[in-house]
Amino acid sequence: MDIATILAFMTVTTLLVVSPGPNGVLIARTVPTSGRMAGFANIAGFVTAFYIHGAFVLFGLSVILMRSADLFFLVKMLGAAYLCYIGIKALHQAWRGATARPAVTPARRRRTLVMAYVEGLLTNALNPKVSMFYIAAFPQFLPPEHATAANIFLLVFLHSMINLVWFSTMVLVFSRLSRFARSDRAERWIQAATGLVFVGFGLKLATMRA
């Protein structure tokens, strides 16, 4: 796998990670009530879920794609449509200045570390957006000839490390970053950048040869 592919993957995942979403909401609810360690337990749950998704890619999707050109084409077009959809949606929200984030209030009940870990795990393991990311984005960065365990888990590792750095920083300096995450201007810029990148990658995915 070349460095350009790795950098492209990191660009996409970084935009997804820093965009306001359920992971940030969970930390915003957990840390004020349960403390920093519970926030780090949330993050550990996030990372575990990414490796679960990576295992499904390794043992399921990658094998099917290598054996069926027709299925490769179907998944490729569905993935391209999904990437373009979320890209266009992000651009539309950035243009209108619309925000989709809910009001975040701290959790009333204190979480143990185990509870915080499980909440982080389920937030990502059962999130259809995370599942679609692995289904839609991975075929682009892992063409059949490169769909090896080493390459798959390299990308999962990079995704998990980006999450670790961003959300650990959010936990450590929560009040400052939580205000940034609620900034309409910051969110519109992130949405616009995410939209452009995902539409571009969706179009590129659509033209990928089986």
Summarize the model shown.
The chain is built from 9 helices and no strands.
In words, what does this structure look like?
With 210 residues, this protein is mainly alpha-helical. It has one domain (3-206). It has helices at residues 3-18, 22-34, 36-67, 69-96, 113-125, 128-141, 149-172, 174-181, 184-206. Residues 177-182 have low confidence and may be disordered.
Topology:
Blueprint: H1 3-18, H2 22-34, H3 36-67, H4 69-96, H5 113-125, H6 128-141, H7 149-172, H8 174-181, H9 184-206
Features:
globular, mainly alpha, 210 residues
Helix content: over 70%
Following the backbone from N to C, one meets helices and strands in this order, namely HHHHHHHHH
Query: Which class of secondary structure composition applies to the elements?
Result: mainly alpha
- How many independent structural domains? 1
Kindly state the number of beta strands.
0
> Main β-sheet, in a few words?
none
Average pLDDT: 75
